[in-house]
Amino acid sequence: MQAQDIQQLIEDGLPGAQVVVRGDDGQHFEAEIIYTGFAGKSVVEQHRMVYGTLGKRMGGEIHALALRTRAE
Description:
single chain, 72 residues, alpha+beta, 2 helices, 26% strand
């Protein structure tokens, strides 16, 4: 799994989101996501939305993903 793959999955699952994903080792990544759909949601809810775009890849192909999320 590459950072670009994760970015695409998140963008597909959260249309219109601004997404930047970084990570060099193929397992540990960090992502910053700005998305209007996060408005009114707690940080936990926002993170769940992002993890939902990645499905079973979390804990498998993606060992760790640090998130920074906010509404636009």
